Batch of 4 targets.
Target 1
Amino acid sequence: AEADKKAADAKRQAEADKKATEAKRQAEADKKAADAKRQAEADKKATEAKRQAEADKKAAEAKRQAEADKKAAEAKRQAEADKKAAEAKRQAEADKKASDAKRKAEAEKKAEAEKARELLENGDKKWMVQVALAANQANADAVVSKLRAKGYKVTTSPTSKGIRIMVGPAKDRDTADAARKKITSDSSLNMKSAWVIDWVPLDQR
């Protein structure tokens, strides 16, 4: 009976050991499965994160490209605007040159006609140096006395624009021009814009 009990105990013990071993194996299998699941989730997350990063990178590149395209388009627009402005400026300059040339030609034509008319009307010309055009008599008197103090022979003549003050007359243009140079180079007179004119006194017109 003692031997049977021992055998039964041994059998029970063996079964308990077997169960413990199986439970341990099961626990290990469960742990492996849980680890595998965790790993799979981590892998999935990593894959999603990678996919997201790539999507973000693509979006950033697309945005950069769009900005670059926008800048290029703006630069092209600006270049076209600059080109148009330059062309407009060139055109305006060409127009101005053309109108200046026309004005000059008209002025020259007018001057020629005026000269011819003068020559026709006034035979007896005197060469004078016009030194100033005074706005009023007081200004004219001041200029005249300044010139007379220097020994010049001065004549005044009223015009529609003021009182013409002249030095002369001279017998010819060269003599008048020499007087003009002397007057313009005299800094005390300060009459740098004197010029030679051919003048006919009122009583001889």
Target 2
Amino acid sequence: MELRHLRYFIAVAEERNIGRAAARLHISQPPLTRQIQQLEDQLGVQLFNRTPRGMELTPAGELLLDEAKNINAVIEQATERTQRAGQGKFGRLDVAIFGSAILDTIPRLLVDFRKAYPDVKIVLHSMQKDEQLEALRQRRIDVGFNRILTLSPDIAAELVDTEPLFLAIHEDNPLADQASIDFNMLADEALILFPTGGRPSFIDKVLGLCQQAGFVPKIAQEVGDAVTAVSLVSKGFGASFVAKSTVALSLPGLTYRPLRNVPGSTKIDLSCIYRRDDRSPILAAFLEVVKSNRNRREAANNESQSGC
């Protein structure tokens, strides 16, 4: 039995007339009649009673009609799902997340992608930078998010956002009384640095800024991530440099201040990384959402600055 047999059978069964079914299928009557006879021969049963009024279904024909409609519906669904998958509108996207961006930037990006592609299942994996690179090469994830990247030939990156640097500080610290904090005033401040994972990392960014300012930072603790760092800050354990995304995290005793007179760039890049040879339509769709979000933020920032 071939799919065309079922399509011809459904048309005849619904029209109850060979002539009308042939017109519906845009074929002539003789080949349609031969196809129905061929189907009956293959099944070894009579599907229609030929009467002066037309084609009447037999009990076997009635059963086949139900089954044929179910099969046809499954085929149509499979066709549509395949086409949507080819357009990046259906399937699965495995995303590795890590760091302070999960507090703000990444969730907003994932929500925008889900709104645009509701039939793509997003699966999140918590992985540090080295784990993300390994998982990408092993094809266990499709995309990751991280900062301070050193890329290899097989890994590509797309800029997601550029965030200013802030200082997380306990509200009882005298520096918290200032609207912004001069970077050089941090030479004697106990600092909590993160992350302790693969290098180069955000730690190296902070150490480089301190070196340019002419002092060696007093490191109170190195921890794995921004959440742990600001949790310690909220208890008065020290201060910590953080990206703007972290400001979304509020804890008792914790406050944030912008920095001034920073010797180098106060901007921290967040990028998504992916396999350079990945031609997945879903990945391409995700990267378009990333670019669209970035362009929209840049336009809003430019408008805000011009308004000032």
Target 3
Amino acid sequence: MAVLSRARSRKPIDGWNWAGNVFLVFLLLFTMFPMAWMLLTSIKSQFAALQYPPQWWPTEPTLSNYTTLLDPTNPVGREFLGYFWNSFIVSFATTILGIVVAVPAAYAFSRFKFPGRTFLFFSVLLRNMFPAVVFLTPLFILMRWMGLVNTHGSLIITYLTFGLPLSIWLLKGFYDNIPIQLEQAARIDGATRFQAFIYVVVPLSTPGIIATSIFAFIGAWNEYVYALTFLSRQEKMTLPVGVQRFFSEFATDWPGLMAASFLMSVPVVVLFLILQRYFVRALTEGAVKN
């Protein structure tokens, strides 16, 4: 045992492993620094935020920016909470409708053989080859013709147009990795194709559905250009458009802007952490499912 212990202690250090760990730590610090600076600026006063050289740590931290934004009796807080609720409605509706459409569409592309299947599948992805701003004017004209300008429905339809192709592509690849023999076994036991899809395929595809939902929600939550173009009424604005009201011609409320930006990022982070746990659990359950 002593010889074995000494042999282990003399094991050479893996330089590539150490270099990889150092690089990951650097990326973590590089990613967290903007968030930390945003948080520190949000608890400063306006005078402290404009000091030069910058005050790295606030000498008199305050939570007044957060209390103002989260106070429904305050005009600024009432506006911010309204933007927050609008963003949640649009993002949630976009995610749910996108999953409802993308799941059966991806399953059809994965399991069924029909004329033009390959061409249709790649034509779905054709839209992602162009920048989103290219479709700004045509979609605005379409939404105005449909009477959906200044409504959340215009954003939901637009985000579905952008998010569905990638959602279908992601889920199709996930369904391709699910053995078709599991569905055949369910069919032999008397289940219909729809029942096999609901009770066998959908539970096994939970990780893919969750990953696609996260992508769709974050994309709709952070979108700015179409929300700025389609919504001109203040009561209909979403958060990315609403936070620009902290800018003005002569001065910018930097602490308020950083507080609003930090609060805007919290739901996305919390949602990702919660769904990540279910993602791992669903993946392990699917691996041992009979």
Target 4
Amino acid sequence: MKQLKQLYRMYEENDSAMKVALAADLRRSKLESAILEIEFLKNDVKNIMIHLKEWAKPEKPSKSIVNAMDDVVIYNDPYGVVLVMGAWNYPLQLTLSPVAGAIAAGNCVIIKPSEISVACTKLMAELIPKYLDEECYHVVCGGIPETTLLLKERFDYIFYTGSTSVGKIVRAASNEYLTPVTLELGGKSPVYIDSSVNMTIAAKRILWGKCINAGQTCIAPDYMLCTKEVENAFVAKAKEVLYEWYGDNWKASPDLCRIVSDRHFQRLTAFLSNSGKVAVGGQSDAAERYVSPTILVDVKPTDPVMQEEIFGPILPIVNIENAYDAIKFITGREKPLAFYIFTNKKRDRNLLLQKVSSGGVSCNETIMHIAVETLPFGGVGHSGMGAYHGIYSFNTFTHKKSCLIKNFNLIGEKVSSIRYPPYSDRKMNFVVMATKKRRGVSCTYLPYLLIFFLGIVVAFGFKAVAKVAGFDDKLPQ
């Protein structure tokens, strides 16, 4: 708790420095830095501190009749020394949020920020030793060589956020010592939209999810599935919305981030010329690593933009005819980290929810499910394994230690002695009867009931003895 308070103090006292670092790495606006990273981190730690005592206390699950006289307890043990590997696209949030969960669970942490987000990594390396216990929390800076050396060490848990390709490397390295891992990866998160929506609202929510952080978000809408009719309506509305947000000169807007590196910029601009047709946007500037919000139409499933996660402000639209086509298209690919369903048709929504497997879902919204602290955030299949946020962060870094506590009660020993040799059919029949599962039977309060009835038996027994002894008339009636 002391370390969590120090972590919160670090956020409070260095709010401005964090915004400056985010602007240096991504040209992030103050508002986006606040709501997407800094305030998120503050509220994350606050929530943990409010609930930590409740989360950490030993759990007492239900028990069967066999253990009616015993204590059955689950203790929350820290794993030990944890490696947390952060990502560059949200360099503070994606590094420090899992660190808070690891601290809450009682672990020591080696923190490895991304070498791509230079300013934020430098800031964390400077601040963390000033606020947190240096014996328990270390920041390791560096690139691929340092990361490779770290993965050769033996950790008790590894938490990685980043690409699927590197996630496979981390998973392979963890196998050396059978180290458990959480992998927060990515993938192509689809949007399904039909004609039943309010197109003005839908366009704003989809474009906001695509444009924040210049599309460099693991749960950004990656591509859109809709009919040609819906596509035309969406494109027309998108032009209005983007000009409303960014004016006539989008590049001059202070509210649009930049691509993080030249390599990432070149990969994105290649999509503009080799996939579909530009319907909105399409501008770029290598000197500033600027890529405008862009919508591509006439996109084929085989186009390069559909072969990998985009991680930029480019939204390709693939035409389908209905929800069934969308299900077939999505399930024919790797499971996405997020799925966005835009429809007012409850039947179609439920069908899509039932048939499509994804890490998480937002209906008639994008991104915002990540901000619900009571929901676990994580992927499935190639989009990751494990989850965190809120209590799920605490549980991720906690080993649930099972414990059965018996005493030397003679009655309990007499009953349980049925397990000892010599064996017989009578003993076997008793064991089968005693251990047989029965619906709706709970033994949580059975010991108290036994004591209650034992008290009644003792009281009546005492009265009977008193009557035989001839002084029952002296007892209170």
